[in-house]
Design goal:
This protein is mainly α. The longest helix has about 30 residues. The chain has a two-stranded antiparallel sheet with strand order 1-2. It is built from 14 helices and two strands, in the order ββαααααααααααααα. Strand 1 and strand 2 form a beta hairpin. About 70% of the residues lie in helices and about 0% in strands. It has a single domain, classed as MetI-like (MetI-like fold), CATH 1.10.3720.10. About 25% of the residues are buried. Helix 13 runs antiparallel to helix 14.
Length: about 300
């Protein structure tokens, strides 16, 4: 196929020529407009809300006085928000660690030379991805149920527990339950990305390492892991961002309970905005989350991401 250098301009119906750059610009205009409308405008409006005093009556009358950073100081001095923020970061670190380790293990299983293992794994790993988030939370609420839940039945049958326990009524177990329900749902994303990255690693590297007497574990540590760093950085950025914003499983499983033991920062923003109708502090809390996600992203790009050339 001819190279792009042969397509420096395009002739239009009225005998005018359009350069490739201008053509690309006009072709991307509809997408850019949709992005501005759907993403940029809500972000700008949320910034406006976080810097003003917003009430229901004020929204109706247009009376929204500017208060600067007052809303940010309000949430940063709120013990509930601070404890929720610490819990959210903890849940994000645990869930991302589980997703990375289990997802990589599944990808290695799919990459296994035994065809039947690879086929079965590739088939099963996609099932959680097909379940909507809220439906996933409801499904796990049945699994965790203290009267007829399958988890309790399994633990009781194995002799690990003596009687059914109320998992979602215990503060610690409820947090673990929310984390695992979320991890189970999003695992296919990590597994598929890792599997795709494994396919790009040249087999010659492993053959040369085998000839040099390197064990399978040494090949994994010195070949596989270093060459997975680009995709690892992408997974860390995306999954950390989504883990910090975890909401659906909390909504379906616990509604933040028992007490406030499973409140996440996203749940705090939701509760403040739509239950207490404090849209200004709700928007401010959402932007604090955005800043935290940006810090994690910078760290990953700086210390994890590496450009790989074969």
């Amino acid at each position: 196929m001819p190279s792009n250098k042969y397509f420096k301009s395009f002739k239009l119906g009225w005998n005018r020529e359009l350069s490739v750059n201008k053509l690309a610009f006009f072709l991307n205009l509809p997408s850019a407009f949709i992005i501005l409308l759907v993403i940029a405008y809500p972000i700008v409006y949320a910034v406006y809300l976080s810097l003003h005093e917003i009430t229901i009556s004020g929204l109706r009358s247009g009376d929204t006085p500017f208060v600067g950073l007052k809303n940010y100081f309000t949430i940063l001095t709120d013990p509930l928000f601070l404890s929720t923020l610490v819990r959210t970061i903890f849940m994000a670190i645990v869930s991302v660690s589980l997703m990375i380790s289990i997802g990589l293990f599944i990808a290695l299983a799919m990459n296994c030379k035994k065809v039947w293992i690879s086929y079965v794994t590739r088939t099963l790993v996609l099932l959680p991805w097909a379940i909507p988030p809220v439906a996933n939370g409801l499904m796990w609420s049945f699994i965790y149920n203290s009267k007829f839940g399958h988890l309790n039945a399994s633990l009781l049958g194995l002799g690990i527990i003596d009687d059914y326990i109320s998992i979602l009524s215990d503060p610690t177990l409820a947090v673990i339950g929310v984390i695992w329900a979320y991890v189970w749902r999003v695992l296919p994303f990590e597994a598929i990305l890792f599997y795709a990255a494994l396919q790009t690693i040249p087999k010659d590297l492993y053959e040369a390492a085998t000839v040099d007497g390197a064990s399978a574990w040494k090949q994994f540590c010195q070949i596989t892991l270093p060459l997975l760093r680009p995709v690892l950085a992408v997974i860390l950025i995306l999954r950390t961002a989504f883990a910090i914003m975890i909401f659906d499983e909390v909504f379906a499983l616990t509604h933040g309970g028992p007490g406030d033991s499973t409140w996440t920062a996203a749940w705090y923003s939701y509760w403040t905005s739509f239950k207490l109708m404090e849209f200004d502090t709700g928007a401010a809390s959402a932007f604090v989350l955005a800043i935290i996600i940006a810090i994690f992203t910078f760290f990953y790009i700086k210390f994890v991401y590496r450009k790989i050339e074969y």
